[in-house]
Amino acid sequence: MIQTETSGVKAFIGVDTGGTFTDTVVTLSDGRLGVGKALSTPGRVEQGVLDSIGQAAAALGLTLSELLSRTVILTHGTTVGLNALLTGGGARVGLLTTAGFESTLPIAKANKLHGLDELDVTMPVRWRKPDQLVARARIAGVSERVDVSGAVVRPLDEGQARAAIRRLAARGADSVAVCLLWSPVNDGHERRLAALVAEELPGVHVSCSSAIAPVVGEYERTSTAVLDAYVAPVVATYLRALQERLREDGFGGVLMILRTGGGAEPVEHTLRAPVNTLRSGPVAGLAATAALAAELGHANVVATDVGGTSFDVGLVIGGAMQRASTPMVHRHALAIPVVEVESIGTGGGSLAWLDQGLGALRVGPRSAGADPGPACYGRGGTRPTLTDASAVLGYLSRLGESMPLDVAAAREAIRAHIAEPLGIGVVAAAEGIVRIAADQMRDLIRRTTIQRGHDPSAFALVAFGGAGPQYASWYADGLGATDVIIPNLAAELSAYGAVSSDLSIGVERGLVPGPVAEAGPAVAATLAELAGGIEADLPGAVDSVTAVSGRAPVLRHTVALRFYRQQRRIELPVAVPVDAAELARLESEFRKRYEEIVGAGTAADGTPVEAVGVRVELVAPVPVPPPVTRPGGAAEPVDERAAWFAGAEHRCAVYDWRRLSAGCEITGPAFVESGQTTVVLPPGRRARMDAGGHLHLT
Amino acid sequence: MIDEITFEVLRHRLDTINDDAAAVLARLSGSHLAAEARDLNTAIMAPDGRVVCCGRYVLAQVVSMHLVVRDILENYADNPGFGPGDQFVTNDPYIGTLHQPDVVVVAPIFVDGELVGWCGSTAHQADVGGPNPGGITYDARSIFDEAVPMPPVRIVEGGRLRRDLEREYLVRSRTAELNRLDLVGQVAANRSVTAEVGRLCGQYGADAVAAVMDRLLERTEALLRERLRALPDGRWRHVAYVEYRPHGGTTEAVYAVRLTMTKRGDDLELDFTGSDPQAPGTINAAYPALAGFAIGGVLIYLCGGLPWVPGGVWPVVRIRSREGTVVHARWPAGVAMSTAATCQAVRVSVNACLARMLEASRDLAHLVMASCQAAGGGGGTVHGERGDGTSYATMTLDEITGGGGATWSGDGADSSGYTTSPGASCANVEVNEAYLPLLYERRAELADTGGPGRHRGGVGTLHALTPHGDGASMTMMSFGQGLQHPLAAGVCGGEYGGQSVVAVVPDLAGLADEGERRLPMPSATVPIRTGELLVSVSQGGGGLGDPLDRDPAAVLDDVLDGLVSVRGALRDYGVVVTGDPRRPDGLRVDDPATSRCRDDRRHARIGRPPAPPAPSRQGRPLSAVLDLLPPAGDAPHREGVVACGRCGTVLCGAAGNVHEHLVVSDASPAERSPLGAVYEGADRFVLRRLYCPACAVQIDVQVCRTGDPVLAAIEVL
């Protein structure tokens, strides 16, 4: 029966591997959605992916191979590289760099503070450099030098370089990064070095900075090349194993991997520079938010994600995700495009503690971690967390789908550590914890918008992640957001973001900063070279995606401009071929955009505008089948339970998200539960479900 | 009484509002000093000016911002007065800024006609006028040879930026457009704070916001007093030196900053009255700069883990100084270079004395941190013309690569910059080469520059650069400190961090030569010709503890990392490293030879075989290596005695100057100077090491003028 219904139906799969769960969202061309969730399987990550897809298949009445054989595109967000970085499980990297500049990476631009948590920032004895991914002994200088104009000041000494390469290998390097001064302007020496490494150390991975991150600024470029060399072997091993397993189970479509800069690229491209997967998790949530914004007609959206240990905020402006200007991962600088996500250490697992000296109840930034986790997990945790506060207040009735909560343990943790020392009741203490956490979250939303010159009241707000729907009623309060949305699939939104990401192949190149009026030849030549490079090397995936969508891929050319020596760069689309008139238009467009972003009167007439980079991006739209709309109707509660709000106990209706009808309205105090999340509606809050299955809070 | 929950919500909100203001300023500012060196900061203050919230960027800039507010309260209450929407701009170092390039803008915060507080922002300007680009005239005879400062002027009235005053402010600068953007940014930052604090008062009531500010001030003061009470009373001393060649002079005069720090109960006094008379120009600190660096030092070196609310620290710390001295200049002495000169000596002195105090506590010794780099080395400006005839003048920021101080938990952070400007970064080589007609030959952490100790200070960094491009010219003006002697003090018997070097040399090859290298002090301006190299070394951080106690395995790790040379391992640590460095595991520690070498060193220190360590310590610690023992029976010292904490040998009565009872060994600072640099005038200084006369453990290291008596660095009260 099901077989006949689904014959001829095409499937699109998004899979996002997180720390605890691997989520899958399947969209079928007939509009049906399937969701899968399986425990992540560290060590054999591909197993969790297959399990999760299998669950989604089962939800749609299909076997794993039935689903996979119908799948035309499978888009995956992976944390394999990030986990290797966080656990120190990457390669033993050797670094080749220009002789005399071996200290670039250890100096790390003298950073001892950026990326530390709030408590360490006021504890100078804990100030420290980022962890060293490469021991100084495995950094070797190579005699060569190129200057700002690309001219060779000192030729590459190949004999010395070979000796340096052998020395790195003798010191245990099993992956090599290459970063030379001015390689974005002249990559000849880096390419030659890569060839020498291939000759001297066959089979060893090489990451060349000029191929991965050809932008001016040697520290960030070196750091990026080293990160790439550090994670590349691990990521490659994983992706190949995954490809193999998928193929065995009947998958013949296109496998794409999410990139930190947004979009997804064919897996062959990912394997060239796996560093681009390092922060793809938050990207998936933002990609979904952007898709949702388009669906709901919002131009500007704040995406908020409450996880176990952090609260993440990203912006969608004019429908587009924003790029970070000085991105970092685990305190290491990145010189690749990275979607901007601000983060604080406030999540469900954040510890609540008494700052006796200050007389303050504090929440975070330290977390209870996964094991033993919050007290209510019943695994022996005794210190109170934000999740414990929610459990005590009755906001949560279970963990995940069905695991019971140890409310007594949560109550005891809050009583012993917070309520009793403060001389207040357990409920008041728990409500205080929720309020403080929510205020920190709201402060981060304000910070993310206001610091970039935006007014939070000009944004709609989307709340997702396992715990976003629990706290959104509080942290969205007072921001004046135009709409507060808990999306359908809130807990699996990252997987939805994967399935709704377009294919994107982007290449960029830094230019030596120079006045834009004089940059014409360099801009034109570099754009043509990059575009030629993409077109000469078009993966088959582009044809496959185009065939499915029926929409031709688009080539986008952009130029990055900035005022003399400023950090803020603005990327503007440029018409090719580039002529003097186009450059003049770009300059005046830049000044206009700058004042829009930074403020009127800030684009000084006398300050020169520089061209600092160009980018070419090929985008092939991936079709997202429109979901089946929900029928209309009223909301019927499925249960009732007691919960505390503002010191009073309320009987609250409990609704099942899956059974809510389009247009129905729910008035708090109430809960809406779906598989993995609970929407908490305090008294006075109301929620309305739209036809797409998203809840809107008012 | 505000409850713990509302308090936390409002506290977090105020901090966020202040951080937002700093971001607004950085966003609007066009300056790379804001973007890279993060030479800016913001503060929220109570109605009387006490600083409640401050950013972590450049601490010294904001901790004394109340001085600007006090000046306005005292002088302008009626004329011109201040009201809602007003803002005042000043760069007057005699009133409240560190030096003229730091421009402060403050604004009162009014809610419903009531003054609920102030906010302020500060940003370092590329140029504020005066004879030289960049604002510093090395040989100024008085402040009239520098940028003439602007006392607080009401530049924004009722929300409107006054055009006439804006022009009056900007006309003096060579970089008026950049300054205008910073001014716009500072005004906008203050506007955002006034609006947001107003909104907060609307939501929670002005009384609640005032209560939170009061509580932050009160609790911070109480917590700091509690921390002080937990520490033993005492008096500690440190002396640091600044060199300066006054206008028309032919040699550098030496200016001593002398600090006597006394702690009694919960009161801390920083007495700088013994410091030398002021110089005619540029290196002096006016009182606000002294206060900014002294209080900033107290925050960093004593207040770790406490709330960083400077307004709560002020009432606890009493600063004593004499007008007319180098730390407290009398108008019209020049002060433009204060932050790179006298202020660094002030900060190091506060650092050293606080470390000595903390050492005396078992519970708080973990907060001890040796001194980070001071200014010098790559500090200064380069200017000249490019091949196309356009001119340039800027700081390379290369000096922000010196070492951090060692702590009990580990070695100092290598090449990590200033502790007092923790957020600052050096610039990429490629960025400097893109904008300036120069080519770097080297930027490398320099071995043996970290102060030796049981825990090593962070290493400093060597830079070498040369004019590059047809027709390019280059002239350097060095801040020139720490060339004749080191500045970054070690603690607990650890050595000073390596000193600065600035030199013009024909090539790098010669730098590898061992032995002394006699160098001239840089004059006010030093040309670098095509083919010549400007070499600079930023200072290393101070070490902690006797270097002979460092784990030889850690020394070997440093050798393998290139942070200590094989020669340095022997010279500084008595560790014998042998083997072939070209082989992967070719280097190793020769343990028996190391053991013998260290025994010989201890023997040589005191001229006889050293006593063995005692099994355990007695009494209470007076320092990391000294103990204070109660009086015993009929012993002569009724007040108790001081004993070596290592071997237990009684050294003197508790009332004596214990340092006079130690074995003193004076050496030339040149022995450990990077690149063997010996500057003219270095012979005026000695590196004084003090050892236990019985077991030979290194108890203290000091920089002194030749022939100075032994400093009473620790006094029991």
Your description of this structure?
The complex is a heterodimer of chains A (698) and B (717). With 698 residues, chain A is an alpha+beta fold. Helix content of chain A is 34%, strand content 26%. In chain A, strands 13, 14, 15, 18, 21, 22, 29, 32 and 33 form a 9-stranded mixed β-sheet that branches. In chain A, helix 2 packs across helix 10, helix 13 packs across helix 15 and helix 14 packs across helix 15. The longest helix of chain A is centred in the middle third of the chain and has 31 residues. The N terminus of chain A is likely disordered. Chain B has 717 residues and is α+β, with helices and mostly antiparallel strands. Chain B is globular and about 75 Å long. Chain B has a 7-stranded antiparallel β-sheet, sandwiched between helices. Chains A and B meet through helix 5, helix 10, strand 20 and helix 15 of A and helix 1, helix 6, helix 7, helix 11 and strand 14 of B.
